[in-house]
């Protein structure tokens, strides 16, 4: 499979300090058999995350460190995007700074309310 | 859906609706994927938009059936596409807004004044010019008058649906209201045609999102349609294409060929000359598209689709299939009107379209004679 050779190249570049990269699986002419073959070639790794935001997403590291299989579903369960990310950690997993600030403020308000009560 | 606080950012609007950055990244990633943009664009698009003030959008409805707006707002709820309403400030839409009468008209005037030169004008429906514009009036003014005024301050015009883009059904012979597409009325603004009867909701959303993110008109085909969605024919991407190539055709809707899912070309499918994304993005949240349900493509995203003879006659036998035939009268009328009124649609585009149809038909004949 040509995509495996491409992934190896992207991984080697990432390991030597290059930028992360993403391959949009929906843009490739893959049959269901090709997809299964790719999945079994990459296998399952140590990390499996489920994101619950506007539908469920599954973010799994494959057996190959740095290769993440990311599958986004809408609230009806339909796949709306599917990609392989070549990165140390997919950006979507990292908490956003503005949301961290808002969360801190909300927690501070909660503590204040608790003390009043 | 209509918000008066026009100056808050997209991020703030999303927060108010409980949509996190991650949820919004998903929406942008799916849109980038549908538009064949680089996949990294999803995160970049989400972060850029979250910090931006929501762009003003004015949605004008003229001679139309509201099917296009239904396509966008009623597909299945809740949809990821509905997130577009958090990204834009929809300042006027007479179907969706709570205000009516003078209050609605003044909301539009205020949005046009406050955002002059920056707002996106969405037009749904054709513009009837007969009877002094009396076939479609709002607030005592004709559709043509309202369109000309609203176009002046628009950064770009997005024609949603085949009526606004090409005249559609109101424009069909004998065109009793003398209806015209937007391109025949407005000639000095960037116009993006998102045709279809109705257009696919993801195509409407994707086109709007692309424009508000980049501020640029996407690459367009000769009918001013975004190439990312209208770059291939239905036939090019049809899952029944192998049967066409093998010469296996359904002859009636209940014969063995129909039951086996063979090609619907001989039952009038207009897939070979119709440019749209139905075969890839599909309908109803990716469920299917007409050919999957056993019915040929009607060609609804093409100019003059209503006047091309029977929907059930093979293209080789229908009005637009005969080699050497003159350009259909309707297409010529649009072209002539565009020239007269200074519109953007020219004779050239009609000619190119015609050549493309002929090429496609010749291709079909060649394949059949090859026994292929």
Textual characterization of the structure:
- The complex is a heterodimer of chains A (117) and B (372).
- Chain A is an alpha+beta fold and 117 residues long.
- Chain A has one domain: Ribosomal Protein S8, Chain: A, domain 1.
- Chain A contains three helices and five strands, in the order H-E-H-E-E-E-E-H.
- Chain A has a five-stranded antiparallel beta sheet.
- Chain A is elongated and about 65 Å long.
- The N and C termini of chain A lie far apart (63 Å).
- The model of chain A has no long low-confidence stretch (mean pLDDT 92).
- Chain B is globular and about 60 Å long.
- The relative contact order of chain B is 0.10.
- Chain B has a five-stranded parallel beta sheet, sandwiched between helices. A two-stranded antiparallel ribbon of chain B has the order 4-8.
- Chain B has 15 helices and nine strands.
- Chain B has two domains: 54-229, Rossmann fold (3-Layer(aba) Sandwich); 232-369, Cytochrome-c3 Hydrogenase, Chain A, domain 2, CATH 4.10.480.
- The A-B interface holds A 21-24, 26-27, 51, 53-55, 57, 72, 74-76, 78-81, 83, 91-92, 96, 98-99, 102 and B 11, 15, 19-27, 29-30, 33, 36, 38-40, 42-43, 50, 76, 78-80, 83, 285-286.
């Amino acid at each position: 499979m040509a995509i495996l050779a491409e992934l190896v190249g992207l991984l080697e570049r990432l390991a030597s300090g290059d930028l992360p990269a993403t391959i949009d699986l929906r843009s490739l002419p893959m049959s269901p058999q090709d997809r299964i073959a790719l999945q079994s070639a990459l296998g399952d790794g140590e990390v499996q995350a489920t994101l619950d935001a506007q539908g469920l997403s599954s973010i799994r590291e494959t057996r190959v460190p740095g290769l993440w299989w990311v599958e986004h579903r809408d609230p009806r369960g339909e796949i709306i995007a599917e990609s392989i990310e070549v990165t140390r950690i997919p950006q979507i997993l990292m908490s956003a700074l503005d949301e961290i600030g808002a969360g801190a403020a909300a927690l501070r308000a909660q503590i204040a309310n608790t003390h009043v009560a | 859906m209509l918000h008066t606080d026009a100056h808050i950012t997209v991020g703030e609007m999303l927060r108010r609706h409980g949509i996190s950055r991650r949820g919004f990244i998903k929406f942008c990633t799916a849109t980038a994927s549908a538009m064949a943009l680089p996949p990294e664009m999803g995160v970049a698009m989400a972060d850029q938009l979250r910090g931006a003030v929501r762009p003003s959008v004015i949605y004008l409805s003229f001679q139309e059936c509201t099917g296009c707006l239904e396509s966008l707002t009623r597909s299945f709820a809740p949809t990821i596409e509905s997130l577009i309403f958090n990204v834009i400030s929809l300042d006027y839409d007479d179907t969706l807004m709570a205000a009516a009468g003078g209050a609605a008209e003044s909301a539009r005037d205020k949005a046009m004044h406050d955002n002059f030169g920056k707002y996106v004008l969405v037009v749904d429906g054709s513009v009837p010019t007969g009877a002094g514009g009396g076939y479609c009036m709002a607030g005592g003014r004709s559709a043509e008058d309202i369109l000309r005024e609203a176009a002046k301050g628009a950064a770009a015009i997005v024609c949603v649906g085949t009526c606004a883009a090409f005249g559609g059904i109101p424009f069909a012979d004998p065109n009793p209201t003398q209806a015209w597409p937007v391109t025949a009325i407005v000639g000095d603004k960037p116009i993006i045609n998102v045709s279809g009867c109705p257009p696919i909701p993801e195509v409407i959303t994707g086109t709007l999102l692309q424009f508000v993110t980049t501020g640029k008109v996407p690459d367009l085909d000769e009918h001013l349609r975004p190439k990312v969605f209208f770059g291939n024919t239905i036939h090019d991407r049809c899952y029944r294409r192998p049967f066409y190539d093998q010469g296996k055709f359904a002859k009636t809707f209940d014969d063995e060929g129909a039951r086996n899912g063979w090609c619907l070309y001989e039952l009038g499918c207009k897939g070979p000359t119709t440019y749209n994304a139905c075969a890839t993005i599909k309908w109803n949240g990716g469920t299917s598209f007409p050919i999957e349900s056993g019915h040929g493509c009607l060609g609804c995203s093409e100019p003059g689709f209503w006047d091309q003879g029977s929907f059930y006659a093979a293209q080789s036998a229908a009005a637009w299939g005969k080699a050497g035939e003159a350009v259909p009268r309707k297409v010529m009328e649009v072209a002539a009107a565009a020239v007269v009124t200074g519109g953007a649609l020219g004779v050239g585009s009609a000619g190119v379209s015609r050549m493309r149809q002929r090429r496609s038909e010749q291709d079909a004949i060649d394949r059949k004679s090859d026994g292929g």
